[in-house]
Amino acid sequence: MRYRDNLKQAMKKIALAGALTMALSGAAFATPQDDLRNAVEYNRPALVQKYVAQGVDPNLKTRDGTPLLVDALKEKNIEVAEALIRAKNIDFERTNAAGENALMMAAYQGLLPMVKLMVETYDVEVNKTGWTALHYAATNGYDDIVKYLLDHAAYIDAESPNATTPLMMAVMGGHITTVKLLLDEGADMNLRNQQKMDVIDFAKRYHQDEIAAGLESRRRKLAEQSGKPAAAPAPAAAVSQPAKPAAPDVPTPMPPAKRGAGAPSPAGRDTIGTPTNMLFDSNR
């Protein structure tokens, strides 16, 4: 009996020693790059600042291939993101597998302070070919970011690879105030994507009935003001949907993601007390 107890104790000590050896061995072989990746992953801004100051490249990617800055913004780790944004030699145009850069991710997550920091302090370009930060802000109905980007020369009718516009994304997501903001700022409601869908088609396809009614009213009134009859809707493709720009494991505006905890409330309550036919009246 005593022999078995002693044997168990000895085996436990051997296992513990082995685990400790492996841990020390792993630590010994960890690179500065691994240290920075871990600091970003575990949301340790002070360590991020330390390793970047020591010369570790802030443009490293996570183990799944996402730029560290894009990953920090995706996770809404604000202090880590800011430390990377302020790092020397940071490349704001690095993208993940879906083609999403740092500004797009900040816009998608509703991080206006990060958007402002990149645009105002580091002169990050707000426009790009294909999906843009404006698409992403409109997708989730972040009116403050939409307005900010427009005020900083974002192209209002930017087209995704299949010609989907920010206005179409706002309509699809049911963000009424975002739709009105874009229309009042001059978005073209008559554009069609490669599936021949315009904004009213999007509203109907995604069961945004209130928005569809408001858009139809606006189109009629604009036609009356111009003295021309409203154009008859063109038939849209029966099953086609806007192209999906992102891999399944990253945020993407197709379909719009649900807002995370703490994000502004859905735009559905924004119309209380404002009839849709008045909400979409042209201000121009």
UniProtKB/TrEMBL annotation:
Residues 217-284 are annotated as: Disordered. Residues 273-284 have a biased composition (Polar residues). PROSITE patterns: ANK_REP_REGION, ANK_REPEAT. Keywords: ANK repeat, Repeat, Signal. Residues 1-30 form the signal peptide. Residues 229-247 have a biased composition (Low complexity). ANK repeats lie at residues 129-161, 162-194. It comes from the Bacteria. This is Ankyrin repeat harboring signal peptide protein. The lineage of its organism: Bacteria, Pseudomonadati, Pseudomonadota, Betaproteobacteria, Burkholderiales.
